[in-house]
Amino acid sequence: MLKVGDKLPAGSLNEFIEVEGNGCSLGPNTFDIAQLTAGKTIAIFALPGAFTPTCSAKHVPGYVEHADMFKAAGVDEIWCVSVNDAFVMGAWGREQKTAGKVRMMADGSAEFTKATGLTLDLTGRGMGLRSNRYSMLVVDGVVKSLNVEAPGKFEVSDAATLLGQTKALQG
Q1: Hey, which end of the chain has fewer CB within 10 Å, N or C?
Q2: How far apart are CA 59 and CA 92, in angstroms?
Q3: Nearest to residue 133, comparing CAs of 145, 123, 117, 147?
Q4: Residue 122 belongs to some domain of the structure
Q5: Residue 55 catalytic?
Q6: The domain spanning residue 126 has which CATH number?
């Protein structure tokens, strides 16, 4: 399993782009994780699924609400990662009003999630293999803090906790 001090695994994530520009076409675009994190500070939070109750009511809204504070603390980007396709993540981002605040990154085949070792098997609940709920601060591709939730919990991966860690690490 991924731990503090590890480099993020190689691979890619997808993002649904609403407005064409900067070399990105409308619709799903694939991004290389190593290229996206090089020289940047990224706050990443992952969750079991788009449009699910805790994820929609608490997890995403907290990061949207605290986006300016993350930027002030030196974070270049905030990513929400979920084992959903880019179309679903794009629709969820529109519904959650994440534009300009949180990048909704799709891990449709769970390749990134499997590579981190942070999987959650929800097959028994009809959802298949998903991501565990967690947050992490990544600096130049290296994990500086990692907060993994116990199954069914939402206690340590919230925006306020990661923001506090970010300020402590950057301070």
Answers
A1: C
A2: 13
A3: 147
A4: yes
A5: yes
A6: 3.40.30.10
Tell me, letter by letter, the H, E, C secondary structure of 123-157. HHHCCEEEECCEEEEEECCEEEEEEECCCCCCCCC
Contact by Cβ (8 Å): 70, 78: yes
User: Is the whole model's pTM more than 0.90, yes or no?
Assistant: yes
- Put residue 142 in one of left, alpha, beta given phi > 0 → left and psi -120 to 50 → alpha: beta
Residue among 55, 78, 148, 163 flagged as catalytic: 55
Look at strands 134-139 and 41-47 and give their pairing: antiparallel
Flag whether 143 is in a domain: yes
Does 87 map to a domain?
Answer: yes
Give the total number of structural domains in the chain.
1
Structure tokens at 108: 């449709």
Residue 169 domain flag: no
**CA 56, CA 75: separation in Å to the nearest integer?**
23
Cross-strand partners of 104: 80
At 57, list the tokens. 């009511």
Among the residue ranges 18-32, 45-59, 113-127, 156-170, the one predicted with the least confidence is 18-32
Q: Is the separation of the CB atoms in 10 and 19 below 8 Å?
A: no
pLDDT digits (tens, 9 = 90+) for 103-121: 999 999 999 999 999 998 8
